[in-house]
Specification:
single chain, 246 residues, mainly alpha, 13 helices
Length: 246
């Protein structure tokens, strides 16, 4: 990959990873429409930058999860095992769809799953909740995250929208929706690292993705607080339509 391609894909990953518009779907489209020679392994490598962003952005919450879990007291005392529980269906679904990667990484598939993302996003406009997490919710959110391996079905969109539809508090939905991604991202990297043909330019892509991802995550937190999360349905719907026209 050359400098331009790496820069383009890194910025694209950084913007679309956290915003509910599907980073994997956008990378498939970029590679299909623009002839980019990226790969699934490179996509997942860029996700490592996103993993580092999670650890930095949510460092306070992660410390609370560890400390409260150890002391067995506090509002996040059970989060460590909720995350473990969510990771089980995520892993099973991720492994299954990984074996189907070539069949589902097409623009046509992306358009279908973008429409599903659109429906999920729009549905959140009509719900408000004050519930906290429990093991049943954690299991459902793990399933939502596992299905988000499908390109076009946004991971953040699927998990946060599902949480909001379950009437979980907005701040809880936002925090858990991203912290629970950490094991999934690490697992995806370990699954594909053997397929990665290393190039030094990837380091530039990693750094750029890191910076852009952090800014995107901060933007999304602000939009969720203002109840603007659902408005991303406009973009995903228009993109799905464009895919079927082109």
């Amino acid at each position: 990959m050359d400098f331009f391609q790496t820069t383009f894909l890194a910025v694209l990953q950084g913007i679309s990873e956290w915003l509910p518009i599907s980073s994997s779907g956008h990378l498939v489209l970029a590679q299909s429409w623009l002839g980019m020679d990226g790969s699934l392994a490179f996509d997942v490598f860029l996700h490592l930058a996103s993993l580092l962003v999670i650890l930095l952005f949510f460092r306070k919450q992660i410390k609370e999860i560890i400390a409260q879990g150890w002391r067995r007291q506090g509002d996040k005392k059970n989060w460590w095992w909720y995350i473990a529980l969510s990771s089980v269906p995520t892993a099973f679904l991720g492994l299954y769809f990984y074996s189907q990667a070539d069949a589902i990484r097409t623009p046509q598939s992306v358009s279908i799953y973008l429409l599903l993302t659109t429906a999920l996003l729009l549905s959140t406009k009509f719900v408000k909740g004050d519930k906290d997490l429990n093991w049943k919710f954690a299991l459902l959110l793990g399933i939502a995250q596992g299905l988000a391996v499908l390109p076009g079905l946004s991971r953040s969109g699927a998990v946060i929208a599902t949480a909001l539809l379950l009437e979980i508090k907005k701040d809880r939905a936002f925090e858990y929706g991203f912290i629970v991604a950490a094991p999934a991202i690490l697992g995806s990297f370990l699954l594909t690292v053997g397929d990665l043909d290393w190039e030094n330019i990837y380091l530039w892509g990693f750094l750029l993705t890191l910076l852009v991802s952090y800014a995107s995550l901060a933007l999304l937190r602000s939009l969720i607080k203002k109840d603007y999360f659902y408005l991303f349905f406009i973009y995903t719907l228009l993109l799905a339509i464009i895919i079927n026209i082109v």
